Amino acid sequence: MKILKNLVPYIIIIVVVVFVRTFIITPVKVNGNSMYPTLEGNEIMLLNKLGEIDRFDIVVVKLDDHDEELIKRIIGLPGETVEIKNNKVYINDELLDDEYGYGITYNINPVTLKDDEYFILGDNRIISLDSRSFGTIKRSEIKGTTNFIMYPFGKIGKVE
Question: Which of 66, 44, 158 lies closest to 120, judged by CA?
Fold first, then answer.
């Protein structure tokens, strides 16, 4: 009985850690340079699985036909129409003040998002695999948002 009593605090800690990691926050690794200059490959970030999703949030997406998770930026929200022309992004025919986009992108015809759809782009528009190539994503494909680098230690902190 004494052994069980001594184990209870450790069991509680394990349960809490598993719960937090499963449902609230977990580490995620940046693969590649599609989010350069904001993020670089091999950085470790914290993924927040709770909360709302807003324009310009950095999100982690898991698509059914891709092996790895993608880290991209939310550009278009449900119900909006997204268009790219002359290297500029338009939302509902209005120029988007997009300070994150880096590099040249190609034109896409207007895409109207459904109630549960989002349009995502990588910050490094030259090389990013994103909604321009595979289309819109559903809310269920978004694992959460991330804006905090925890490794490398010299870059610890919040990113926009």
Answer: 66
